Amino acid sequence: MADDTSKASIRDQINENLKRVYEDALKEEVPDRFKILLAQLREKAGGT
Questions:
Q1: Which tens digits make up the pLDDT trace of 4-34?
Q2: Quick one: residue 29, left, alpha or beta (phi over 0 = left, psi -120 to 50 = alpha)?
Q3: Domain segments of the chain: what residues?
Q4: 41: pLDDT strictly greater than 80
Q5: CA 44 from centroid of its chain's CA atoms
Q6: With b meaning 16 or more CB within 10 Å and e meaning fewer, what string describes 22-36?
Q7: Where does the Anti-sigma factor NepR domain start and stop, copy by copy (predicted)?
Q8: Residue 45 and residue 26: Cα distance in Å, rounded?
Q9: Which of 4, 11, 22, 43 lies at a 20 to 30 A Cα distance from 37?
Q10: Taking 80 as the threshold, does the pLDDT of residue 36 lie above it?
């Protein structure tokens, strides 16, 4: 029983950490080089 409780606690910690990392990643701005690449792809897709 204690082993199951311990595993559940570890699982909860992992879930919380993953959520925190994901939320932090969503707040990051897209780097300029990716914006440029996306703009180039849009131009190419629109030109065909």
A1: 889 999 999 999 999 999 999 999 999 999 9
A2: beta
A3: 2-47
A4: yes
A5: 27
A6: eeeeeeeeeeeeeee
A7: 11-44
A8: 26
A9: 22
A10: yes
Instruction: Report the predicted TM-score, pTM, of the whole model to 2 decimal places.
Output: 0.56
Residue for token digits 């029983």?
1
Structure tokens at 1: 């029983």
Separation CA 16–CA 10 (nearest Å): 10
* Confidence at residue 35, expressed as pLDDT on a 0 to 100 scale: 95
Q: Token pair 């990051």 is at which residue?
A: 28
For 6-21, b/e burial (b = at least 16 CB within 10 A) is eeeeeeeeeeeeeeee
Structure token pair of residue 18: 């993953």
